[in-house]
Design a protein that fits this description.
With 720 residues, the protein is an alpha/beta fold. Among the domains are: 3-220, 3-Layer(aba) Sandwich (Rossmann fold), CATH 3.40.50.2300; 224-327, no CATH class; 565-720, no CATH class. Helices cover 33% and strands 12% of the residues. The chain contains 26 helices and 21 strands. The strands form 6 sheets. It has a 10-stranded mixed β-sheet, sandwiched between helices. Strand 20, helix 22 (572-584) and strand 21 (593-594) form a beta-alpha-beta unit. 48% of the residues are buried.
Length: 720
């Protein structure tokens, strides 16, 4: 981390609030009865969440709640309240300081709807997986109910749902650009990203008598301003990234070289440092004015432009504030929060979590808890910059890692306290499996860099890719008494892994349970360039190493590659080529993933504008393929499941339209057969199938399906 960013007060350096005298609660209370047992007459902070309350650091409300408790505050939890009225929002009484509102660990819309906008039948964050326990756009609804319950209590919204809606954003579910969630929720303040620093500062300042309207300028927060504060310069977004002719820049977001070599001569060195400091000071007092909501909501090109500018201001070392007009109100977005130090990360994860669901749920199973109860989060953030992913927009691209001792301490706690523990740690990871302690080699370069990815189009020469600390952690963890096996279940960044053959060997020899999931996402370079993902050559290199080390270890192990259908920039031919690759390599996907345009991601700006937003956008720039129609999205998913007879009628039709009848037949060289097995069509598809069959439009004959003849990558067909 840049030394320039280490000016923030340590997370645990604040003087504790007077209520610390009540001590640590066994679990944060969810009822008045529990508050009475703790001797509380009121809560200082009440957190409202769309998830079941699990007192575990993998659940946001527990982490923030325990952190505030460590600061001396009394924190209550309102979990999955009945949002049809305000009663549940008043059950813990009036909070002394504020309501903290979150939709939960997942965006409520992503949680409830599939990428095809169909309602999901379950919710992993609810007891027994029951669906329908949270409303659509939960942050808005919960915030309104909090206001209804206690009109004068400050409301602060946060979590991933609020974080990714902090500016005017394209909303896939309504197919329109919506306002910043700060307006729609009618909240007083929004915190984005991992919000420890912001929430702790806010709580202490409110406790010291400041009003919510006085809390301006806190990093990682969004608020309203009536006018530009004195001393601030305003820069129009078109001066930063003027929409113009399409071109391929070296770096789509860089305004100036970030990796200048330092002069050898001392005098020049001082001049360079002085100039950099002057620029930094000027930037710190500059706010960029984005196009107003009213402009971007009706103009996809302006929306794409605003998205590019916003993504260029995500490095805490050089990000400027943003401002966007919504009607008569001005939304001010402060620069991202300073990442936590290792010591602070340890402090957050070492808090006294009970690590179990609240007793209110009895013996009910909460699927998300069952999945993570024996996993350990070792780091945060991601510098991959994949355009379809929102991790960078939420957690940032600077990796925040825990110490080895803290991680080992948590593994021992799981071993010694979890009644369901069988000796197996299900994961040591985070957003990625192998970015632990990886960072820029030079803090000054890191603080100045404006690249959206450290690994695309290739690995930056300034990135430290040494996996030694992670190897050391793995070895120490699996040597602990009582630990039988440690699996690595987080997604592996294999383009980084191949830089460390020793790491790949360690992983393959000791931490793969027969299958290892990785995510090439596609095979075609045109699509991969829109995703900012490496080419398949890197996959082939990793697979070769994986197979070699598996063989040396005497183990039969398989890679499970994940792919995305219908991503912006994907044509029908791209999906056909991917299907042919899958067939050649013997992979049969059980489940497939279609692109879901989540708010604020780069790929979502592509989806909405129809342009490649990794380049300068203009109205005259070439359009890129955007699979939007239900039929085309279904076709792209069908290509991924080319082996499923239910998809054959659709694929036959498409292949004929594409002039690829040569791929329809009953030989090994064909993608799909000419026949349709009985009982393999949905009722609506049967009508269409027989309609075309007997009107002479389809001369295929029925027949018996041949059994699958084998799969050289056997478990590949288990892909999800």
């Amino acid at each position: 981390m840049s030394t320039a960013l280490q000016t923030e007060p340590n997370l645990f350096s604040y003087r504790k609030y007077w209520a610390q005298r009540f001590g640590v609660a066994p679990v944060l209370p969810m009822s008045k009865t529990e508050m009475d047992e703790l001797g509380w007459d009121a809560c200082d902070v009440i957190l409202v969440t769309g998830d079941a309350y699990i007192d575990h650091p993998s659940f946001g409300m527990a982490l923030i709640g325990r952190l505030l408790e460590a600061q001396g505050f009394r924190v209550g939890i309102i979990s999955q309240p009945d949002w049809t009225g305000a009663n549940d929002f008043g059950k813990l009484g009036r909070p002394k300081l504020f309501f903290g509102v979150t939709g939960g660990n997942m965006d409520s819309m992503v949680n409830r709807y599939t990428s095809d906008k169909k309602i999901r039948s379950n919710d992993a964050y609810t007891p027994n997986g029951a669906a329908g326990k949270r409303p659509d756009r939960a942050v808005n609804v919960y915030s309104h109910r909090c206001r209804e319950a206690y009109k004068d209590v400050p409301i602060i919204v946060g979590g991933i749902e609020a974080s990714l809606r902090r500016i005017a954003h394209y909303d896939y579910w309504s197919d329109k650009v919506r306002k910043s969630v700060l307006l729609d929720s009618k909240a007083d303040l929004l915190v984005y990203g991992n919000a420890e620093r912001q929430v702790v500062e806010i709580a202490h300042r409110l406790a010291n008598g400041e009003t919510i309207s006085e809390l301006k300028g806190i990093r990682g927060t969004v608020h309203f301003v009536k006018q530009i504060p004195e001393g601030w310069a305003v820069k129009d977004s078109t001066d930063v990234d003027k929409p113009g002719a399409a071109m391929v820049p070296v770096d789509p977001y860089q305004e100036q070289p970030a990796c200048d070599k330092k002069p050898d001569d001392n005098t020049s060195e001082k001049v360079v440092r002085f100039d950099r400091q002057l620029i930094k000071d000027q930037r710190a007092q500059t706010v960029i004015r984005l196009p107003a909501y009213e402009a971007v909501k009706d103009d996809p090109i302006l929306y794409a432009h605003a998205s590019r500018v916003m993504h260029g201001e995500t490095n805490p070392g050089n990000a400027r504030a943003l401002i966007q007009l919504h009607g008569t109100r001005q939304v001010w977005i402060n620069p991202p929060p300073v990442p936590l130090t290792t010591k602070e990360m340890d402090g957050v994860f070492d808090l006294p979590y009970s690590r179990v669901p609240h007793k209110e749920y009895g013996n009910a199973n909460v699927p998300a808890f069952e999945m993570i109860q024996h996993s350990v989060n070792i780091m945060r953030g991601c510098f991959g910059g994949c355009t379809f992913c929102s991790i960078t927009e939420h957690e940032g691209r600077i990796i925040q890692s825990r110490s080895e001792d803290s991680i080992i301490k948590e593994i021992e706690a799981i071993r010694d306290t979890s009644p369901a523990f069988t000796g197996h740690i299900s994961d040591l990871g985070g957003p990625t499996a192998n970015m632990y302690r990886l960072a820029c080699k030079d803090p000054e370069i890191e603080a100045a860099c404006r690249k959206p990815s450290c690994v695309y189009p290739g690995i930056c020469p300034n990135l430290n890719t040494d996996h030694t600390p992670l190897i050391k952690l793995y070895r120490r963890a699996r040597a602990l008494p009582g630990i039988k096996k440690i699996f690595i279940a987080s997604g592996l960044r294999y383009d980084l892994a191949v830089e460390s053959p020793e790491y790949v060997k360690e992983l393959v020899t000791h931490h793969v349970g027969g299958y290892l999931k990785i995510a090439p996402e596609h095979t075609e370079q045109g699509v991969l360039s829109k995703m900012m993902k490496p080419g398949m050559g890197t996959y082939d290199r990793f697979k070769e190493m994986f197979d070699q080390y598996s063989k040396e270890a005497g183990k039969e192990q398989y890679l499970i590659p994940y792919f995305i259908a219908a991503h912006p920039g994907t044509t029908d031919n791209d999906m056909l080529n991917l299907a042919l690759w899958l067939k050649r390599n013997g992979f049969r996907a059980d489940q497939v993933q279609a692109f879901l345009p989540s708010p604020m991601s780069i790929a979502t700006a592509m989806y909405h504008s129809g342009k490649d937003t990794l380049r300068k956008v203009s109205r005259f720039a070439e359009d890129i393929a955007i699979p939007k129609s239900f039929k085309q999205r279904r076709l792209h998913k069908a290509f991924l499941r080319y082996h499923d007879p239910k998809n054959w009628p659709l694929l036959r039709e498409a292949l004929k339209d594409m002039g690829r009848n040569d791929l329809i037949g009953n030989g090994k060289q064909h993608l799909i057969p000419t026949f349709q097995p009985k009982g393999t069509l949905e009722s609506s598809e049967k009508i269409q199938y027989f309609k075309t069959k007997y009107t002479g439009l389809d001369n295929n004959r029925g027949g018996k399906t041949k059994p699958h003849s084998g799969n050289k990558n056997k478990p590949g067909r288990k892909q999800k």
